[in-house]
Design brief:
This protein is an alpha+beta fold. It folds into three domains: about 15-120, no CATH class; about 205-280, Immunoglobulin-like (Sandwich), CATH 2.60.40.4270; about 295-445, Collagenase (Catalytic Domain) (3-Layer(aba) Sandwich), CATH 3.40.390.10. Helix content is about 10%, strand content about 30%. The strands form seven sheets. Strands 4, 5, 6, 7, 8, 10, 11 and 14 form an eight-stranded mixed β-sheet that branches. Mean pLDDT is about 80; it is low at about 280-285, about 355-365 and about 410-415. The structure holds zinc ion (ZN). The site of zinc ion has 3 residues, from helix 3.
Length: about 450
């Protein structure tokens, strides 16, 4: 027999749809056979309560049928930055109840579910000015800037379960980090430390000290802590004809520098330069450590031919393909003079005299060079030479002394004969008036 008119069913939690049997709808025309159970079929009014947060939704018109799986969940709600969403639960309380998943089944007994929130605290870890976080941040941390990591931690988490940044994660040039330690206990709901900053100690890399013997045997480089007195200095070796005169802060070509002593304290990598006094080893030159290739001579007032010859001699040096530069300067203490009376030295045409070998601050030795005008004139007349040529030869020779060249010895086998050097006594003073290749070689060696 047919069932006939079906009873109504109501519920505050849903909308009745129909009666079913084994999932299939029945109607008043359905034939009843024996004892049968019929199931009411509902569309539930399912509310997702954000529970203080923002979000949540009520599903009414969805085909979300009671007694069937939910199938999907609404988007996660949010609640500021101090609470972490921890799923949908059957109770609004912070604990207890049952979590609702997409596989859960709707029942009319409960159609309201609640967001669960876990309070969190945000930890910040600062590498500090000038430092950076290297490679990847440690697990659980997020790099929010080049110098800052952050991490959200559930309140109540044990500190010792949190991976902590360490020195391998930070770097800063010439500094060593000290990583703050984490607290003990648990992350508290309020209060307590949540921000840390790495502290840095300046490291002091050692400095390398290079000893340049300027032609001698370079001592081995030193490695020392910075800003530390050098102590006993090395002594370079270089043959038998030179005296080692100490170490200097420059090579002496363009600036005098300063003497290096046992108390000198190099800050960074440094080169020190040897100074030598050369007694001559067949190269016929010597250099006092204070000498410079830049020479100034006070403008003098003597007869024009002699002064013109001096200017020519200076020019001869200035164009000699050497570092030498000789100029007139009224402020110079170096002088050139013409003496009309020859000294009581047979054959002497000029002389060089260093007056103050300690006067080194102006990069010039103080000297006086003289030309004995009567001797030059007599010598030129006797040999049929030009007196001007002889004067130029003499001036060029004397300037050679100022530059550190010494007299060539008569008869010394120098190669190239008696005219191979402006410094030779027995040169041809009519022809040899300019620095010769040997002289240029010597001067270039001195001021190398
Ligand atoms: Zn001489």
């Amino acid at each position: 027999m047919a069932l006939g008119p079906l009873p109504a069913s109501t519920s505050p939690n849903g909308t009745f749809v129909q009666w079913t049997r084994y999932g299939s709808p029945i109607s008043e025309n359905t034939t009843m056979t024996g004892t049968m159970e019929y199931v009411s079929h509902w569309i539930a009014d399912v509310s997702w309560d954000a529970n203080h947060g923002v979000g949540g939704v009520t599903w009414r018109d969805e085909p979300l049928v009671a007694r069937q799986q939910i199938g999907r969940l609404p988007p996660n709600p949010t609640w500021g930055t101090t609470n972490r969403f921890a799923g949908w639960w059957t109770t609004p309380a912070a604990s207890g109840g049952t979590e609702i998943t997409a596989q859960g089944v709707i029942t009319l007994a409960q159609t309201r579910f609640y967001a669960r929130w876990v309070p969190i605290r945000t930890l910040t870890f600062n590498a500090g000015t000038g430092a950076t976080w290297t490679a990847n941040p440690p697990a659980g941390w997020t790099r929010t800037s080049s110098t800052q990591l952050t991490r959200n931690v559930d309140v109540g988490t044990a500190w010792n379960t949190i991976t902590w940044p360490n020195a391998s994660h930070v770097s800063r040039a010439n500094h060593t980090p000290t990583i703050p330690g984490r607290p003990v206990g648990i992350v508290p709901a309020t209060g307590g430390q949540t921000s840390w900053t790495v502290t840095w100690a300046v490291t002091t890399p050692p400095v390398t000290i290079t000893w340049n013997a300027q032609g001698g045997v370079n001592p081995a480089s030193w490695t020392r802590p910075p800003n530390t007195p050098l102590g006993t200095l090395p002594t370079p070796a270089w043959g038998t004809n030179r005296d080692f005169r100490g170490w200097n802060t420059t090579d002496g070509r363009n600036a005098m520098g300063a003497a290096v002593t046992a108390d000198t304290r190099p800050i960074g990598n440094t080169t020190y330069w040897a100074r030598w006094h050369d007694y001559g080893s067949g190269r016929r030159h010597r250099r006092n450590w204070y000498q410079s290739p830049t020479i100034r001579i006070q403008q003098t007032h003597f007869d024009a031919p002699w002064q013109g010859a001096l200017g020519t001699a200076m020019h001869n040096w200035n164009v000699s393909a050497t570092p030498v530069r000789v100029d007139f300067a009224t402020s110079s203490r170096n002088t050139a003079v013409v003496m009309p009376i020859s000294p009581n030295v047979p054959g002497r045409l000029g002389s060089f005299e260093a007056l103050d070998q300690n006067w080194s601050l102006l990069l010039e030795n103080q000297f006086r060079i003289r030309l004995y005008s009567h001797s030059v004139a007599d010598y030129a007349a006797r040999n049929g030479f030009s007196a001007t040529n002889v004067a130029v030869s003499v001036w060029t020779h004397e300037i050679g002394h100022a530059l550190g060249l010494r007299d060539g010895e008569i008869g010394q086998p120098l190669g190239g004969g008696r005219n191979n050097s402006i410094m030779n006594y027995d040169r041809d003073r009519d022809d040899v008036r300019t620095p010769q290749p040997f002289d240029r070689q010597s001067v270039n060696w001195i001021y190398r």
